[in-house]
Amino acid sequence: MEYNKEKKSDKLFITVFTGSVDKLMGLANLVAGAVAMDMEVEVFVSLWGIYAFKKDVIKNNMHLSEFKDKGDMLMKRMMELKMPMWFDLLKQCKEEGNVKIYACAGSTALWDVKKEDLEMVDSIIGVGEYLLKAKEATISLVL
User: Fold this and answer.
1) Contact call for residues 31 and 95 (beta carbons, < 8 A)
2) Which of 19, 49, 129, 138 could make an S-S bridge to 10, C-beta 3.0–4.6 Å?
3) pTM of the model
4) Which domain CATH number covers 81?
């Protein structure tokens, strides 16, 4: 399938409720694909996702949502393949593309964190603004 880069850029909006590394890897891969296609990307992080983006957690989080007994094998294989961790890939995507990451105001209050406590977050927004942004998206996904 060929992508027409001449076409007006589409917008991908991803809602992230999870803090699991396996699903966050999926997030980073989806964002990387969208950036490669010159898409605008907006990510809304809530609940466990907020916890995973905390500066004191982001690089130490090894929680998997499924097949927990395969975690060591998965990490070893990622290192063999020189695959970047989700947060490194996401940071690269933010540097190279039009990627914005928003934190849920309610969830930041729940975890008692501020924007400066979170990695890569551009701003904290409420549910109303979240819904307006999601409504504008060409593609909207939930992780």
Assistant:
1) no
2) 138
3) 0.88
4) 3.40.1260.10
